[in-house]
């Protein structure tokens, strides 16, 4: 299977087992400690390894993160926003509102944290 061409910051819908497609954003994977830097006694940090045919995503609404297989990720679209699901939890409704705001440039997830437009500089 070919890797999908998602880029950092892309708004997407990602599916985990037992959940509907959920609003998400492609983000950097977490930083992991590798070894101690013996000169300074501090841990060396490096990004966790990229996973083949997977992307690391931030889930709107729940603020959770996960590695998701490319086959379970689709680009954000109006069609996905309007798609009917059987049970709409409060966190799902919140997630949809957040991805719509993010698609308008109102709020976004950046540098490892959620940044409402009202708090951004510039």
Automatic annotation (TrEMBL):
All residue ranges annotated as the PWWP domain in the record: 8-79
Pfam families: PWWP (PF00855)
Protein name: PWWP domain-containing protein
Source organism of the structure: Trichonephila inaurata madagascariensis
Source superkingdom: Eukaryota
A cellular component annotation (GO) from this entry: nucleus
PROSITE patterns: PWWP
Coiled-coil portions: none
SMART domains: PWWP
């Amino acid at each position: 299977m070919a890797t999908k061409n998602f880029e950092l910051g892309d708004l997407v819908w990602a599916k985990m087992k037992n959940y509907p497609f959920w609003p998400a954003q492609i983000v950097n994977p977490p930083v992991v400690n590798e070894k101690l830097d013996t000169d300074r006694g501090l841990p060396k940090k490096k990004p966790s390894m990229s996973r083949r045919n997977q992307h690391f995503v931030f889930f709107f609404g729940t603020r959770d993160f996960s590695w998701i297989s490319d086959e379970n990720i689709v680009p954000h679209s109006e069609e996905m926003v309007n798609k009917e699901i059987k049970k709409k939890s409060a966190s799902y409704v919140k997630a949809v509102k957040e991805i719509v705001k993010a698609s308008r440039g109102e709020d976004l997830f950046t540098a490892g944290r959620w940044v409402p437009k009202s708090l951004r500089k510039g």
